[in-house]
Amino acid sequence: MTILKRARRLAETGRQWFVPPPGPVAWTRAYNCGILVALNPEADPDAVELALARGSEREHALPVDRRFVEDGTAYLHAALDPALLAGPATLRLTVTEPGRADQQRIAVGPGCHAVHLDGVVGGVLTGWVSSLSAEPLPAVHLVVDGLEGEPVRPGLYRPELRFGGREGGWNGFRLSLPAWALDGRPHGIAVRAGDTVADLGAYAPRLRSSLHVEAPSRVTGWVFDAAGPDRPSTVRAVRDGEEVAQVETHPRADLLELFGRHSAAFAFPPGALTPGTDLAVGPVGAGEVIGHLRGTIELARAEARALLLPNDPAATRDERLALRERLVAAIRPGGGARLVLAEPAAPEPVPESGRTPPPACAIVPVYNGLSDLEACLASLLPQLAPGRMRALVIDDASPDPAVTRALDDLAAAGHPALTVLRNRENLGFIGTVNGGLALLEPGEDCVLVNADTVLAPRALEKLARACHRRPGIASATPLSNNATILGFPGMPEAQGPLLGLPPAAIDAALEAAGFGAVTIPTGVGFCLYLNRQALDEVGALSPEWGRGYCEEVDWCLKARDLGWIHVAATDAYVEHEGSVSFGKSERLAILERNHDRLLALYPEYQDEVDAFIAADPLRPLRTAVLGTLLAERVRRLTLHVGHGFGGGAGRYIDQVSGLARAGDHEIGSLAPTGRGPARRLILALHAAAASVTLRPDELLGLLEALEARGVAVDLHLNARIGYDAALLDRLFSGRWPYAVTLHDYQWYCPKVHLVDGRNFYCEEPPADICRQCTVSGVAYDYADQNALMGGGLDGWLATNERILRGARRLVAPSRDTAERYARRLGLTGIAVVPHPDAAPGPIAERARRPRTGAVRVALVGGIGAHKGFELVVALAERAARERRPIAFTVIGSVADLTRVEGLGTLAVTGSYRPEELPHLLADVDPDYVFLSSVWPETYSYVLSEVWAAGYKVVALDAGAPAERIRAQGGGLLLPFTRDTAILLDALVEARSRLAEVAIPSLPAEAPSLAAYEAAIAAEGSDL
Fold it and tell me: Whole-angstrom Cα distance, residue 322 to residue 960?
């Protein structure tokens, strides 16, 4: 009797009935060669028992052979004898859990199939199918209200089915519901596979959602379909009928507690949305709209500016102040009043004023930092002139007596237009600035100048001109190496001065570029020119910001609410050291606290800054000036094209960039960032100590401009991941000579490491078999060629082969790598040249002593899937089960820490910095280091590091590590197998076998770049 029948019978007799709480099992399915049990969260897998019988035979226990987790769901797996499926039969499967037992009757044999439905998410029904016979997988049909759709062949990878079934997990399907079935009314949903029909029942979306609009385009919230499964769904941003952005829902602890949903929260990236955007769940045109965004702050500011520009500011000041008060009350936190706005008419172009800027006063707050102060004053004093520009240097009670003496000497020198003052007690930056503002003459502008800046000649004059070029400008800020959104050569991160150049040289190049002033969301306080009329309206800096940080942004945003704007003086440059008055930890604490408060007051601000950074209107200027300054000082540029993930390829680029080379030879590295239309390129220049973000066309323009000015440009391709085909074609069309280093197998294996669904070496089958690994997508982003991963690989391979065959040099760091590429793609002339390794320094000699007891094995680095994580876990589990005398320690990280918790034979130390490795190895004191990679690595920096630290290695017999060990010694090779019995025996025996093995020495120093390039030229030939 089932629980449901018993409940009904007891209800009919009037007896009280308590339904037991949900047990461990969520569902159970048979599939080809196995029984799969999905567990509820926090279930005890040991509380579940399985029993099986065929026909009228007696039941027998069915042992669980695997316990594993996929996508957050825990599974039990029991193998099924294939002979049970040979002919027509009925199996009885009993699933026993605490307080209940459930029995299923399963028809097997020809024509019988298992169909599992996950449910509908975002208008798509997903699931899997398996034949319960020797027949191949059948096609599936979506059935909606009895209407059957076209056949769909299963071909999506379902990792929970990879054990035992002959399909290897490629059993999944996705079926999109027609638009008419998403109209909110219930529709019958089913799936047919052969004669088997799986009925989902009546389905209608029941969305529950909540939006939190932090700013017009900064939106977070949560949404889930109460009628659908607990799986990630997609929230789409739609504008004018077209999708402009999408995000996937993710876990949030409070939602799990409230609704029991593991995936419901979402957050759109800053700047992704604009007013007038709909947020919807489901297909475009058929989804359900859960929110609409409207802009109001922008309208209020536009109305204020429309009042400001045609009039004297004083004439409309009260009206604009009232508008700002209504804006704050209606929109900003704590508000709630209604704000009624008129759509302002399109503003007429504002002509240049032609006005001579009024006199100005530079206010320089000082607190310690003598050397910076001296450099600042040396650049400031020549720009002072009575009646035009004066300065107040105010010592904020600096405790350093050297600063006091220096300022006393400065005051005694009697510089015209300079006044030196001293606070009796420390007032902080804001108090000191406000004290200076109180001393301004009527009608006098102000320039806030940090004492850790160095001004280019005429910088103050240029700032004044920029601020008064047109009416309604509240502030002007120069460009700087450390000025967030106004950084040069890159932003927003601080950098050193480009090429170590003085401010005057960079300033002259900016001025020569002739770029006009650019409107910015806020001025930056390191050197900020303030219009006196705006200063009179907004007032002094608010003392509520404590000792400083964000106070100038608060001032600038108040001015914007009144209709003023802020501009970047693009012809002026000021060098800025930054953070001299505070220690780093104190600075970060103050900045974090004040930044949080700023966003609470102005929730739109971060979104505006993010949008400015994304649009980056100053990028063309920075790129042009960067090219000018480079071309004057560089004769050759080698650009390394990489993926930006770090790892071996990233280390190689860093290594080559550090090789000795000619002083006029610059090395750059390129890495993609972002996705889709927002994709950008990060260009880092080694000798120039600069980093810039460019659009693809801007990079090409920069290279062309450098070439036109006599700079020899050559390229070195290390990765094609992240670059679209159009950019690859333009970069590697033959205009610039290029070499390719083969760091992995991404040129013919989309999964990069030649591993299949088992997370083990795939043995490199033909391309049509490779498709089975890629049909459901791969982990790496191939930009516009991602779509090719789901179909044939011919187009993708054609692009890659064209690039490889067009290279002047192909370089492989090992012969094994070169031979694999030669076999697979028919390439010839590949230069085999090891990476330019060198010993990091002398390593203290370790005491050599015989050891008994358990064998200690270390693994080094990030042990992910391709580094043998599954194999290592299996070895540790077997060692524990068989009580073998061996213990493993990972010096680094693992793919899934929860999988190894509780394993007494496997410990994990956590991530480390490279320089820490010798000391960590000494602490672990292993007998040797095990290289557990399950793919044929192309080089292995870990092997070099371990040898340099004085330790022997044991590796699987594959790839470059095996090649190096055979050639140089320093370790042992094990059979390249997944058989843990063989490997565990060999690992235990390895300690004694390594007793007489010597560790090879790395070169004392790396070759020069010229020597390394000569070795490549000598080994390879032009292709």
Answer: 73
Six-digit token pair at 661?
């080379």
Cis peptide before 672 (omega within 30 of 0): no
Place of tokens 């991963």: 789
Cα–Cα distance between 786 and 788 in angstroms, integer?
5
3-state class of 81 per DSSP? coil
Of 940, 919, 922, which Cα lies nearest the Cα of 868? 940
Structure-block tokens of residue 426: 């420390």
CA distance 730 to 734: 8
The conformation of residue 632, written as its DSSP 8-state character, comes to T
DSSP label at residue 575 = E
Radius of gyration over alpha carbons of the chain, in Å?
Answer: 34
Tell me the three-class secondary structure of 465-502, residue by residue.
Answer: HHHCCCCCEEEEEEEECCCHHHECCCCCCCCCCHHHCC
Q: What is residue 44's predicted lDDT score, i.e. its pLDDT?
A: 83
Tokens for 852, please give them.
């008994």
Half-sphere exposure of 936 (CA within 13 A, CB side): 22
Please tell me whether residue 974 adopts helix, strand or coil conformation: strand
Could you report the per-residue pLDDT of 265-306, keeping only the tens digit for each?
998 887 777 766 778 887 766 677 777 665 567 778 888 898
Beta bridge partners of residue 894, listed in sequence order: 863
Residue 11, pLDDT > 60, answer no
- Separation of first and last alpha carbons in the chain: 76
Count other C-beta atoms under 10 Å from residue 251's C-beta.
13
The conformation of residue 240, written as its DSSP 8-state character, comes to T
Read off the amino acid at residue 425: E
What per-residue confidence (pLDDT) applies to 282?
A: 79
Side by side, which strands form the sheet with 73-79?
A: 25-31, 34-39, 73-79, 66-70
0.85 surpassed by pTM: no
Buried/exposed code over 68-79 (b: 16+ C-beta within 10 A; e: otherwise): eeeeebbbbbbe
412 SS3 class: helix
- The answer to whether the beta carbons of residues 958 and 761 sit under 8 Å apart is yes
**∠ CA 462-463-466, rounded to 5°:** 85
**Angle 778-780-783 (CA atoms, 0-180°, nearest 5)?**
105
DSSP 915: G
Order of strands, sheet of 265-267, starting from the edge strand that comes earlier in the sequence? 207-215, 218-225, 265-267
Q: What is the pLDDT of residue 242?
A: 82
Q: DSSP alpha helices (H): ranges in 296-400?
A: 297-308, 313-330, 370-380
CA angle 894, 897, 903 (to 5 degrees): 105
Distances (CA, A) of 663 to 456, 506, 688, 712: 27, 20, 11, 14
Dig out the tokens for 856 from the structure.
């200690």
The answer to whether 50 and 35 have CB atoms below 8 angstroms apart is: yes
d(CA 159, CA 162): 5
DSSP reduced 3-state for 31: strand
Integer Cα distance of 1021 and 1023 in angstroms: 6
- Euclidean distance between CA atoms 995 and 849, whole angstroms: 10
Output the six-digit token pair for 411: 């005051």
3-class state of residue 367 by DSSP? coil
CA angle at 32 for the pair 27 and 36, rounded to the nearest 5°: 25
Instruction: Give Cα 651 distance to the centre of its chain.
Output: 19
Q: Which of 392, 837, 811, 798 is nearest to 655 (CA)?
A: 837
pLDDT digits (tens, 9 = 90+) for 76-127: 999 888 888 888 999 999 888 876 778 888 999 888 999 999 999 888 899 9
Tokens of 629: 């300054």
Question: How, if at all, do strands 147-148 and 140-144 pair?
Answer: antiparallel
Q: How far apart are CA 191 and CA 204, in angstroms?
A: 16
**Single-letter code of the amino acid located at 887:** A
Q: If pLDDT is split at 50, 70 and 90, which confidence band does 346 have?
A: low
What token pair was written down for 131? 């034949």
CA distance linking residue 789 with residue 987, whole number of Å: 38
